[in-house]
Amino acid sequence: MALKDDVFEHGPDPENPGWHHWNLKDETLFNGAVMGKLITRKEGDKCRLRMFPERKHQNLQGVIHGAVTLGLIDISLFTTMHVVGSGNAGPSVTLELSTQFIGGGDPARPLDAVTEIMRETGKLVFVRGEVVQDDDRVAAYSGIIRKFLPRAG
Fold it and tell me: Strand order of the sheet with strand 92-101?
């Protein structure tokens, strides 16, 4: 299913050649209100989704809050479906997400979720990936997405 241009911005990002926007036009919804600017690019059979941490993304220890990392991971599942999968990024929901936190995210560097599809069926997508900052691993994850048929009308 194609992404709706009236609600979603996914064109090239002129500030980051080779990358595309991955943002909802309504910035009051979760992606914009919480995560901020997101960009993505295809890397072989993987998809990289990048966020730019701000002070609001830190916890009391001065590292990126785990909930922000989980938000990035969840969004990356759907980004990957669109960028390297069947293109059917919606309507769909996360059925399962397993995450292992490996290290603290540095709020001074971009945070990337690098995801690959292990298998895609008519209704399910199985993915795995890592959250990284350069060569530093922040988290590893796997998940299952359930695709739905578009509603009639």
Answer: 20-21, 38-43, 46-51, 111-120, 124-133, 136-147, 92-101
